[in-house]
Amino acid sequence: MSSFSRCAACKYLRRKCPQDCILAPYFPSSNPQRFACVHKIFGASNVTKMLQQVPGHLRAEAAECISYEATARVQDPVYGCVGIITQLQQQITQIHSEIMKIKGEMVAHRSAHPQHLPSPQPQGEPSWFSSTHRQEQDNFQSDKHLSGNF
């Protein structure tokens, strides 16, 4: 980076942006709020250390994850990303219950009016969904049981 074109990190920290600034590719000057959020949660030194420990080809993804977690922590200081994950798991559980209820209603309707509908073709869920969802639900329930916070 040239001395007049600093990255968001160096601008925020009010320092000169060195040619080999590890933060420059991931915190461009066009998005200063991204670094401000990351700095507030993790600190510039810690972010630099984390990125240095990651292989070069994975640093962009690591910076994205750090930024996402920092944003989530600013919005929800207690749970951060875990709060978002918990909400999504609850939505999956709720929607799965709704699907099961609707399937039950369809079976009841078909058995009450067999002459009006063609014979049902077994559809079911894909095998990967059932086992994956069951495992996620079990993990969620055990996490919920252990923490007692959700």
Automatic annotation (TrEMBL):
<dbReference type="InterPro" id="IPR004883">
    <property type="entry name" value="LOB"/>
</dbReference>
<protein>
    <recommendedName>
        <fullName>LOB domain-containing protein</fullName>
    </recommendedName>
</protein>
<feature type="compositionally biased region" description="Basic and acidic residues">
    <location>
        <begin position="133"/>
        <end position="150"/>
    </location>
</feature>
<dbReference type="Pfam" id="PF03195">
    <property type="entry name" value="LOB"/>
</dbReference>
<comment type="similarity">
    <text>Belongs to the LOB domain-containing protein family.</text>
</comment>
<feature type="region of interest" description="Disordered">
    <location>
        <begin position="108"/>
        <end position="150"/>
    </location>
</feature>
<feature type="domain" description="LOB">
    <location>
        <begin position="5"/>
        <end position="106"/>
    </location>
</feature>
